[in-house]
Amino acid sequence: MLPDPKDPSYLGALVYFHHAAESLSFSRAAQALNVTPSAVSHRITALEGAIGKRLFERRVREVRLTQDGAELARATAVIWNELKEITGKLTTREVLRISVGPYLSSQWLLPRIGAFEAQHPGLRVDLIHVIGLPEARLADASIIWAELDSPPACAALLFDTKAIPVAAPGVQTSGNFWEGALPPIHYRDRSTWRHWLSTIGAPTDFAERGEVLEEPHMVLEAAAYRRGIAIGFLPFIGTFFDQGRLVHVGTQSIRSNRGYFLQVNSGAQPKAKLFASWVEGQAKELLFRTAANA
Question: Are 196 and 255 spatial neighbours (Cβ–Cβ below 8 Å)?
């Protein structure tokens, strides 16, 4: 009967066989595997029975590979070396866990992470996408969307943002669009629209209309599909402008009451500071380019 590769005992027997074939000794294989020589002999006998081939010639004080055994030994040696190589890479490569919202990740951070990893070949960045406040125990550093007046503890401001109303091209709006029929679209709550309206002196009751969505990217998508007017944040709204899917409604923009903060969590590995320095540099570069294009 042919062995079933899904059977763990079959895969385990190949491990026993590899060590015995490599050392040409059941005793030395047993030492490497921390088992008894009889256990090695039993597993190899079971393997020979399963595949219907003798793999070893057993003599009084030695074992030798048969022709079939030598062929199998060449295959297990290649596989074993590949496994050692990849597990070695996995165990020696450091992993940084970065908590970030899905919108900032897709629009800004994710396209840049490859460049950071290329600069630090022994380091991999795992992005933990979180909507709302991050769980510090799960990450080495967090990028947090928070109010400027209530920043997270021990956090540095990466970006402050400009809030602008946006809608699909061709949507009919007046200068005082809050007097029209097109409703606002909100992210999580109505506070952003209330802040924008009160800052420019417009009636805040406009903010009591419209739907509330839980994912920031969907707010912009809803606006692009003509469901209403959204608040977009410069410099991250640029992709929608470049694609011609959204336009600035009206002429007013204000400094948002929210921004992105970088927080390196206490107890994080030293490489987290390396990432923090790099991401702060990336933020400054984006802000410089945005100012130059303004």
Answer: no
Task: Provide the 3-class DSSP secondary structure of residue 252.
Answer: coil
Question: Can you tell me the distance from the alpha carbon of 4 to that of 28, in angstroms, rounded to the nearest whole number?
Answer: 27
Residue listed under structure tokens 């290649």: 78
In the numeric block, the tokens 């100012």 are attached to 291
Q: Which tokens go with 156? A: 């540095």
pLDDT band at residue 1 using 50, 70 and 90 as cut-offs: very low
Kindly report, as residue ranges, where domains of CATH 3.40.190.290 are found in the chain: 94-294
Q: Does domain 94-294 bear CATH number 3.40.50.300?
A: no
Give the CB-side neighbour count of residue 127, counting CA atoms within 13 A. Answer: 19
99 phi, psi to nearest 5 deg: -90, 130
Residue type, 75: A
Beta carbons of 75 and 92 less than 8 angstroms apart: no
Using an 8 Å Cβ cutoff, are 290 and 236 in contact? Answer: no
**What is the phi/psi pair of residue 184, to 5°?**
-80, 155
Distance between first and last Cα of the chain: 74
Least confident residue range of 63-77, 131-145, 192-206: 131-145
**Span(s) in the chain for CATH 1.10.10.10:** 8-91
Backbone dihedral region for residue 5 (phi beyond 0: left; psi -120 to 50: alpha; all else: beta): alpha
CA gap 128, 138 in Å, rounded: 8
Q: Tell the CATH topology of 8-91.
A: Arc Repressor Mutant, subunit A (1.10.10)
Q: How far is CA 73 from CA 2, 64, 68, 247, 255, in A?
A: 18, 12, 9, 66, 69
Question: Which whole-number Å values give the CA distances from 104 to 109, 215, 240, in the listed order?
Answer: 6, 11, 14
